[in-house]
Amino acid sequence: MRLRFFAVLGAAGTLMLAACSSSEVEKPSAKGNSATNANAPIAAAAPNSENSNTNVVVNGMVVTPQAVDPNSATSADVPGTPFQPPQLQSKLERLRQGAAQSGPPVDPAALALKSARPAPDNSTFMSYLSDMGYEIRMFKSHPQLQKVEKRTMNDGTSIIKIYLRSGKVVDLPGQSIPMLATAPAAQIMSAAGLSAPSSRPAPGSTGAKQAN
Q: What is the C-alpha separation between 13 and 115, in angstroms, rounded?
């Protein structure tokens, strides 16, 4: 009876010693798992790296960083460098060349006079842009009207000057004659408050015929 008791007690002691030894073996691995995250990516340098662009292993895959050529870096890649696209630089270069090769200044009024086009009532019309916008109507054979000039300022306001053959100048608001290029002479005269010239009898005529 005693022999059986001691045998059972020895077997129980053996099992307890085995359990303690297994728990001591597992403790280092548990500490290692607590220090690192199993889900975190593992990065390591590849053994064949020869320059600063080192190959990197991420989650078992080799990722090769792209090499950067310092000579090909644009101004946008360099902090503090003003952005100047090639189009802007070429345009500025063309302007510099044009300024260097430019001749004497051009008179826009004289240039517009060469391209004047016909207008109603035996007149011509031209327009050009200088210090302001100009529209000019020249009358060749009108007995009273010589020239009508419309000036449009930078702020959009406009004025009209009517030059008469008598030397008088009539000033009007720009809205008085909306379409100066095609306005009839009668409309211009009416806007200026002028009356049409009375018709003169032909030379040698005695007016209305007397009734017999």
A: 121
- Helix ranges (DSSP H) in the chain: 2-35, 86-101, 108-114, 185-191
Categorize the per-residue pLDDT at 95 as very low, low, confident or very high, splitting at 50, 70 and 90: low
Please tell me which residue, 6 or 163, carries the higher pLDDT value. 163
Answer yes or no: is 159 within a domain.
Answer: yes
**Residue whose entry in the numeric block shows the structure tokens 């078992």:** 60
Q: Which pLDDT score, from 0 to 100, does residue 67 have? A: 53
What is the residue range of 157's domain? 108-191
- CB under 8 Å, gap of 24 or more: what pairs does 75-83 form? none
Bridge partners (DSSP) of residue 129 are 133
Q: Is residue 204 part of a domain?
A: no
pLDDT in tens, 25-49: 444 444 444 444 445 444 444 444 4
